[in-house]
Amino acid sequence: MTPNILTIAGSDPSGGAGIQADLKTFSALGGYGMSVLTALTAQATTGVTGVFPVPAEFVRAQLDTLLSDAKVDAVKIGMLGDTDVINAVASAIDDHGLHNVVLDPVMVAKSGDRLLAVEAIAAVRDQLVPRADLITPNLPESAELLGEDEVHDLPAMRAQAGRLLDIGAKRVLLKGGHLAGESSTDLLAEPGSSPQAFSAERLPTKNTHGTGCTLSSAIAALRPQRRDFYEAVREAKDYLTEALRYADDLNAGRGKGPVHH
Ligand code: PLP
Fold first, then answer.
1. Complex ipTM over 0.90
2. Ligand 1 centroid, distance to 175 Cα (angstroms)
3. If you write DSSP's letter for every residue of 100-167 in order, what string do you get?
4. pLDDT, tens digit, for every residue of 66-111?
5. Would you say which domain of life the source belongs to (predicted)?
6. What are the pocket residues of ligand 1 if the criterion is a CB atom closer than 6 Å to any ligand atom?
7. What's this model's pTM, rounded to 2 decimal places?
8. CATH assignment of 4-249, given 3.40.1190.20, 2.40.50.140, 2.40.50.1020, 3.30.410.40?
């Protein structure tokens, strides 16, 4: 049976990030995509010019209506915007017993535009990190969640992944794409075992918009179809590498374009 995969995230009209990237990824990886919108953005490959938030009550109404009808097999959470929306999503996870929840703690777009209010970071840490089955921070997001400096090497990444478990994360995929080097290494950490490293070649691609959205969505789509998170993450990384390899074939605008689904 085709698994139902839900994204709770913001819209990107350029189709490279947000719910548009999530739905393309779900379809490409054998899932049936569903979406609850948290915000509209006015956005192109050149950046974000505006954000129009969906009120928290209406985020909750979308979730309640959908989940009273459909069973979802995995959830990806992306851009949330503010504390009220975070609280609404956290209580919906409990009330509907959502499982296979992958949280991408989106804070700032590559263009530099903020997608999460600074004062909402604590709510992500306290309300969502412990409820998610996997969190997928990059290094700046990990530092923000922990209130620490950004780390710059693999040993420090291992230590920081451990501290994310200490604050209540059930599983962490700490993404090392911001480190210098010919390959890009991510660490999958779970309590009670040493972190597993996934390395991929670093491609000279110009178009990298939506990489984080794509990876977390690929993991959510694959998790119900694979034995465990390790297998889902391994294949999701391969999917992202191929999406990056062909990204420069796209002509979605003048700025940093999207990866190729
Ligand atoms: N727009 C939306 C709606 C997003 O959810 C995200 C990332 O999660 C972005 C933009 C940023 O994408 P990137 O930083 O890959 O350019």
1. yes
2. 15
3. SEEE----B-TTS-BSB-GGGHHHIIIIITTT-SEE--BHHHHHHHHT-PPP-SHHHHHHHHHHHHHT
4. 999 999 999 999 999 999 999 999 999 999 999 999 999 999 988 8
5. Bacteria
6. 9-10, 12, 17-18, 41, 43, 78-79, 106, 109-110, 115, 209-213
7. 0.97
8. 3.40.1190.20
